[in-house]
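Q: Hi! First time doing this. I have a protein sequence and I read that you can turn it into a structure. Is that right? Here it is:
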Amino acid sequence: MSTDPSWSRRIAIVLVGALLLLSVGSGVVAGQSFEGASDTIVVGEGETYDSVSGFAGTIIVRGTVTGDISGAAGTILVTDGGTVGGDISAAAGTVRIDGTVGGNVNVASGTVEIGESAQIGGNVEAGANYLIVDGQIDGDVRAGAETITVGPSAVVGGEFRYDAETFNRDPDATIQGAVVRDRSIGQSAGPEFGTLDIPSWLGVVYGLVANLLLGVVLLAVFPQFSAGVADRVSNRPVWTGGVGFLVLVAVPIALLVLAITIVGLPLSVVGAIAFGIAVWVSVVYGQFAVGWWALGLADTENRWLALVVGLVGFAVLGAVPVIGGLFELLAFLLGMGALVLGLRDAYAARGQEESPGGRQTTLDESTGEGSPA
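A: Yes, that's right. Below is the predicted 3D structure, encoded as structure tokens:
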């Protein structure tokens, strides 16, 4: 395995490659806004984002988005307690709102559900196969669907204009305006891309392709470092995963403390971006390492096959509720720990290189004990 390129050149190449891929394959959080694409976008409880705009397998809002949500996703969920201050304008396989939306909801989806606890301050325009309204809507509703169900807890402040093959209205539902069947609506209701139905698997495939591209860059540019990652996960999984967990807890706290000071705020922003890149790399490295370990059980050593097996395997596993997410988290912690330990060893090796009489050591020599085929 050739080690001619210098350490600095390899760092530059992988960063440029990661940033290019990041622009098409993963979102970047900047100024507490999300723009880009990702497997999953989550605004957690207690978190506040200015806006969310992108393409994802799943968008979940448990905290607060002060502005708009726009884009395409397999699933969009605003949980009970979640708040969107602006509008929701999106195409999705499923849209469910149990929280608060201050503006309008304008969606094209397979299924749209407005739950009992939902509060929508504006209008709702939906093009869907199935629409269920059982919450509060202060404005008008304009919907085209195969089946529309208005539940007993529904409160609509304005007009309910629809076109549907089946329309079910509970007698306890409240609609203050007129209820009008308008056949001109058809399936034209929804955002400007009409009734475009984005299946959930498409977001997963998009994220998988982005991760595969990043994995190819990492394995091609840092073959020995990648081998070291796989070795650490295979030989010391508990220690490696423990380090990943500590980093996951400690770094956000450190960035938050740094952001409190005026001087440290710019550094915290840069640090957050760098940590976001590290998280993405860790996800790919963790799944690659698990794939390498699995192939080892079959006495097969091929780094490219391990990358495909790991990433495709976790993409399929991610479809399993709860369990899939748990295994994805474990793989991420393994990848994060292996990445940090590898960088630590690389830094220690460079220190030895710069010491008097020290032999010059390459990055590959310092971060891997052998390269996968």
